[in-house]
Design goal:
mainly beta, Methylamine Dehydrogenase, Chain H, four-stranded antiparallel beta sheet, 1% helix, globular, disordered N terminus
């Protein structure tokens, strides 16, 4: 198991491997007025899918995915990249890149969207890079590539090349900043010895953390490979801020993780700045349980993520700043936590998880965890399972279970009431 930004990202844990029946329990109201109002952005998929929103901008744009039944096969699902403008949802998956599945992970103020999409080109190595088979989605057997969408058009981003000049087949664009810099991962065409064949993963090629930059509409895309820690063969950049700092992880190839939707076994959380990789350390673990990785950062260089604890017996979210890593404990009574994103005012978002792996959306203010469900009206129709992204207005997005039907998953927007924003 791993964490999120995906953002990377534990935000999918509820619907991929865990029962949601316990999430229909009544919300306990605090002895205070609600701090947020909830806007239901509509259903994004069944409880067993990964449909959800991922990023919200200050001008109300929200990137995400919606998982729908395949009209040609009742036993399969199709993932569509979507973009919310306010509460109106637009499908940006078509015409796409020729394949059946796509996801919009990041969006910026200008409406540029970054994500992943199946193509119409067969994968030469028979990989399942984006995990469509593992996730129960329609599997085309084709490549899955990073994309940039703007002005109604989806364009594939380049992958890395090996010494012979062969371009890697697959990749993922995880997030985009307001200057059009995109963070993600790309294959490089080199055989990855840590995959050890199909017994470990159908993945066979190395994938490296990268940043794509397109300075002007008429200029070519510049692709920069980012260094890993300790010779790790694989890595992913999950998030990037407006200063061009990026965060993510490196490690070895592993089985496809349905929670994180990648083949990385992350053992090093990383901050990339000025082309250098900074090892953020850990909470004492080695990364053999949930992993060690950074999933979000703000423009002040504060970083959040998830790390195994000592002995790899558990995992918690963390906050890293000025060279120090701090444990973000779960809500009282829960056992695990995962930090996903952080605002420019230091409000940390994520998930608090019970011993039975039931998740709930959580906020950390000054290191103290609060169940987001206790900060919304008690009669809200949704039970908030994750908090994934926050904008400059203090608005939060995530996914939730419909209380009247916990098997139905919805996207939500939590809007702070007057005089309550970003934890003030």
């Amino acid at each position: 198991m791993k964490s999120i930004q995906f953002a990377t990202k534990w935000s999918r844990i509820a619907r991929l491997s865990l029962a949601l029946a316990t999430l229909a329990a009544p919300v306990c109201a605090l002895a205070q007025s609600p701090r947020y109002t909830i806007v239901d952005l509509g259903p994004v998929g069944p409880s067993s899918s990964q449909g959800q929103p991922f990023t919200v901008t200050g001008n109300g744009l929200i990137s995400g995915e919606s998982v729908l039944a395949n009209p040609n096969n009742a036993d399969e699902w199709v993932s569509n990249a979507v973009l919310w403008v306010g509460t109106s949802r637009k499908d940006i998956a078509n015409p796409g890149l020729g394949g059946p599945n796509s996801v919009a992970f990041g969006v910026n103020l200008w409406g540029q969207v970054a994500g992943q999409a199946d193509t119409d080109k067969p994968d030469p190595n028979g990989e399942d890079f984006c995990g469509t088979t593992a996730l129960g989605l329609t599997h085309s057997g084709n490549t899955c590539v990073p994309f940039l969408w703007q002005d109604g058009r989806m364009v594939a981003l380049p992958r890395l090349r090996n010494r012979a000049g062969t371009e890697g087949s697959n990749g993922v664009a995880s997030q985009i900043n307001d200057f059009g810099m995109v963070a993600g991962t790309a294959e490089n065409g080199e055989v990855d010895s840590t995959c050890a064949g199909a017994s470990v993963s159908p993945q066979t090629v190395e994938f490296k953390p990268v940043i794509w930059t397109k300075f002007f509409p008429w200029s070519p895309v510049r692709l920069q490979e980012l260094p890993t820690i300790g010779g790790d063969p694989d890595g992913i950049a999950y998030a990037i801020n407006d200063l061009g700092q990026a965060v993510g992880a490196s490690g070895n190839c592993g089985p496809f993780n349905v929670n994180e939707q990648n083949n990385l076994t992350p053992t090093h959380a990383i901050l990339w700045w000025g082309g250098k990789a900074i090892n953020l350390g850990s909470l004492g673990g080695d990364g053999m349980f949930a992993g060690i990785y950074a999933s979000g950062l703000n423009d002040d260089g504060q970083v959040v993520g998830t790390s195994d604890t000592t002995g790899d017996a558990s995992f918690n979210g963390f906050l890293w700043q000025q060279g120090h890593i701090t444990d973000l404990l779960p809500v009282t009574g829960d056992v695990y936590s995962s930090a996903i994103a952080i605002s420019n005012h230091g409000l940390v978002l994520g998930v608090s998880i019970s011993a039975s792996f039931s998740p709930r959306a959580v906020l950390w203010r000054n290191g103290t965890a609060t169940d987001l469900n206790t900060l919304v009206p008690a009669d809200a129709a949704l039970y908030l399972e994750s908090a994934c992204s926050i904008n400059e207005k203090g608005e939060i997005i995530g996914f939730a279970a419909l209380k009247s039907n916990p098997s139905e998953s919805h996207a939500y927007l939590a809007k702070p009431v007057v005089n309550f924003r970003d934890g003030d």
